[in-house]
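Title: Prediction job returns without error message
Component: structure pipeline
Severity: low
Priority: P3
Assignee: unassigned

Description:
Job completed but the reporter wants confirmation the result is attached to the right record. Sequence as submitted:
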Amino acid sequence: MALGIAAYSLFSAHDAMIKGVIMALPAPQILFVRGVVVMALCLAIGRTQIIVDLWHSKNRALILGRGLMTLAAWVMYYSSGRELQLAEMTTLYYVAPVLTTVLAVIFLKEQITLARVGGAAIGFFGIVVAANPTGFTIGWPVIMVLGAALFWAISMILMRTISKSDRTIVQVFAQNLIHVVVMAGFTLPFWQAMGAREIALCVAAGLVGGLAQFMLVEAARSVPASVLGTVEYGALIWSFVFGYLFWGEMPATTVYIGAFLVVAAGLTLALSEHRNRREIIDAP
């Protein structure tokens, strides 16, 4: 769970870097460059054995599905960054843990507990409060973020299944390979010139994002998907910090209240799972 929290904290920094260039570059080009950086990093560490392992994997169909799901999620999510504040888009996106909990029970037959249901419910209520139904405009940016949350939740279920047999570095390499191949068709014919700032942020996003992906997959090996999805809440605070520091964003009061609720939900669930594991270990 510590790995999961660290991974999502890195994703928050990664998202801030992406938002820093989203007004200058289209999302497909950013994802293409980031994917190339992560692939190069994986090959530098694992060499050609990664390709051999991927070719012989029994989960190639699932890996392809997860790659496409995460790609769709990130394209929709980052495209919404042109219209929404970082704290707004991140808070709305955190409906994903609720969806992950539901899907994990249905498809992975994970045990449903009061703590998991309660954490998901409180987190969802926090999302509703943050969205401020009385004054929040449900436009395409909001719809794209919610759609991204659905795709991410599905990818979490696939990741949990794949992690049972495939090495972490193979999964990370395969996911970014899919991103690069798909985005090449949308990016290369319409390539936009990149300045030093854009290149630096995209490369940094690749390095940070690659590490976050690796840590997330490692966490999925031992943490149920319904729990791992909910620890996303713990990283929400970073979106407020980065949004204020870099863009001077001041979210509405309802966003702060909603964020507090989703963080509380995640921490409560984390403590509950830790207590349950201690009881299992201490049992004679």
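Comment from assignee: result matches the submitted record. Residues 25 and 193 are 9 Å apart (CA to CA).
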